[in-house]
Amino acid sequence: MTIEKPFIHMLKTILCNYIYDVNTNQFIDIDEDTYRYLDDIEQGAGVLAPNDRVQRNIEELRTQGFLSTKHPQEIRHSHSDLLAYHLNENIMAMALQVTQQCNFRCAYCAYCADDFEFQRNHSSKRMSLETALAAVDFFAARCINQDQPTIGFYGGEPLLEFSLIQRVTAYAEEILYGKSLKFTITTNASLLTLDIARYLFEHNFIITISLDGTPETHDRSRRFANTGRGSFSVIRDKMDAIKEQYPGLYDKLSFNIVIDPRYPCDPLHQLFNQDDLFRKARFTSTLIDDTFTVEKAVPSEAFMQQDGRHAFKSYLSLRNLYDLDNVSRIAHTTLCSGIQRIHLNMKPAVSLPDVVAPGGPCITGERRLFVSVDGDLFPCERVSETSDVMKIGTLWNGFNMTKADRILNIAQTTAEDCKNCWAFRHCTLCCKHSDNSGKLSANLRRSQCDMVRTQVEDGFRDYLWMREFGVSYDTLG
Fold first, then answer.
1. Among 3.20.20.70, 3.10.20.90, 2.60.40.1180, 2.60.40.1880, what is the CATH number of 80-345?
2. How far apart (Å, rounded) are the C-alpha atoms in residues 18 and 25?
3. Average pLDDT, the chain
4. Which of 65, 221, 274, 414 is least surrounded, with the fewest CB atoms within 10 Å of its CB?
């Protein structure tokens, strides 16, 4: 007996052998012989006839609805027909680029690279009051189904335009009166005075501070434009003052850590565990995004060793084998958020739909519509502002639905690959990963598929490790 090639992925952990069944989005624990037989089928190897026990196991799995050979027939996002509704009535948040200027010149910043054509450089361009108020009107007319709309201020360094931010805030509070309006700002904090801090606190701002670690780590990358000096001590002094004067505001702060994997990471982990200013603070952490930079951030051996050791301690703490107080907060947050993401995506299904799209693309512009200084509209702030294919409209002419739909359905550029990929449901590639100098490139998207599959498989193993050792997913927070 041989069977048609089922849509599955085979996965081993230290304790068990698994089938990941793509159609049902479930893991099935199987014996070694059945695993070997199905693994040979998945790999396209020469397959010997199964023994009676393997044959019975396979027949039982098929009776239970597993091992289906079904693949999607068409790649199309499920919200394609509703895109006009999402963009015209249901936008959650808008980010205003109030300036393209910055008083920092960060080593990894895409806007600093004069020799890289895929992104703009720093400029003196700033958003006019007319454009800013038009953006609020545009957003107010298109967030009518949102009870808690959010307006964010972005740059460059947005506090260079604090007076504009004040004008926009007052206008938005008037126009969106009756809604639970929130504001956000992402800042390097070098211009954050106590008066500004008081204003932000009084107007319900959520503040994200860019801070990359210890003085040595931070100052290596985040330097003042006019002097070339590091900025850690300036930011530290301002954070100390805010914590003392406005503890309520400090509790609403979060830090955004950009980790450079070319250097050891122990000092960073220690800072956010031991320093009184940071050890209870909220934070997010990411590795350097080198999509729009020439120099690539290749992890060093020291980083890999130290990062792995912190991750291992976090694993042990989830089984109560290591004191959580001695575990890196950064490593623990990274591990738990990754497992939680897989857990939330593991929704059992009967089968894949005939028409479906892989995970990755969010609904174009709905979560965080980005408005440039000129009033151009982009899906979010992470895409290139020089890319015509990413520009989905203007404040003055509205949305270009054809371009927005093309971005939403970016997976159509690699449709056949996606239809046959076992990581289909858990893919993380969005439009940004297909932008090749203003054109959507199937080859560029395809070049990152192996990396995504590796990341998904690593996430699967973490998720299964929790299940095998009986660790509740509720402990992830």
1. 3.20.20.70
2. 12
3. 92
4. 274
